[in-house]
Amino acid sequence: MRFVVAPGDSYEQYKATFRDARAPVAAFGDSHVADGLESNEDFVNLGAAGDTLFLMLAKARRYVASGRGKKIVLQYSPEQFAIYRAANQQTDVAEELLEGNERLLEFMRPHFRGYLLAYWSAALRDPARIFAAPAKAPSRAEPEAQLPSGLNALPPAEQRKAAEIRVQLHAPLPQGRTVEALLEKFSEVLREFRRQGIDTCIVEYPLSGPYRESAARVPMFDAMAKRFARLADAEKVRFVDLATAMPDSAFADPDHLASHARAKMTELVFDGCFGANRGAATR
Fold first, then answer.
1. What's the DSSP call for residue 8?
2. pLDDT digits (tens, 9 = 90+) for 149-201
3. Is 30:48 a contact under the CB 8 Å cutoff?
4. Is the pTM here over 0.70, yes or no?
5. Nearest CA-CA partner of 156 in 218, 213, 206
6. Distances in Å between the alpha carbon of 21 and those of 41, 43, 54?
7. CA angle 31, 26, 51 (to 5 degrees)
8. Using CA atoms, how far apart are residues 263 and 283, in angstroms rounded to an integer?
9. Closest CA to 167 of 126, 216, 94, 240
10. Residue of 267, 202, 271 whose CA lies nearest to 230
């Protein structure tokens, strides 16, 4: 873990960015945010793959509490309310990132621990990689090279199949106590930011046509979207729905943008969230 996995992992780079960033505008969320936006001197993308609603809000609160964040962009995604994420508070990940609670053994770090079976599987399939030169962590400043594939390169039937698999995984829980508790957590942070004078915006990130078509056949997606829209309205927070904003050619898979779409997506988020006050967003 220490000599093969960690050197090629970007998490330490992320931790340094979270600790050192001074941008007044910050975006938080999961891989849809991490893959979809470009940072610059006035804006920092602090999205991270796998972040649950709990961890997203904890990071945003800490960034604001540090006095750095003046404008905050939070993510809405049905996936935040899916069964595999709804109860996952990622407390151990938050403790390492926010409190500096380090583990002595690398494989016990929460960032790696959830993938131990996958690491073992990879090592057993190709033992030689254990002795290979460590890979370098990818730079967020230099987008990864684009594969010649992308979503559009797949035959339509494969696009639909890939989308259906993702939709099954992301399907939100039915309305009820668990969903309401998550929504109340979101509302609590929105009210806290409003009291502190923080300009907050919520964004739903783009989804491909095949994904949207598959999700339309699952009633929980529509019910969750309507329920969240009511929350945003009640809290008087801008809710920018960009689910249909990008063509399928912009996607690397059914629900993640390719790196060549980041500049356009960043522009859409800024315009949707800050509009006429876009210039003020960088002050």
1. G
2. 589 889 999 999 999 999 999 999 999 999 999 999 999 999 999 999 999 99
3. yes
4. yes
5. 213
6. 9, 9, 21
7. 30
8. 20
9. 216
10. 202
